[in-house]
Amino acid sequence: MTSKWWANEEFWRKMAVWVTAGMLLVLIALTFDTIPKISVGSERVPAYSVINQRIDYVFNDERNFQVPVIGKEQLLFGKKLNEEEAEAMVTWGKKIIQGRNCINCHTLLGNGAYYAPDLTKAWLDPNWGNSNTREAMMVNFLMDPVTNYMNDSGRKMPNMNISKDEAKAIIAFLKWMSSIDTNGFPYNFKSIGQEG
Question: C-alpha distances in angstroms, 74 versus 30, 102, 132, 140, 178?
Answer without folding.
Answer: 36, 27, 11, 20, 14
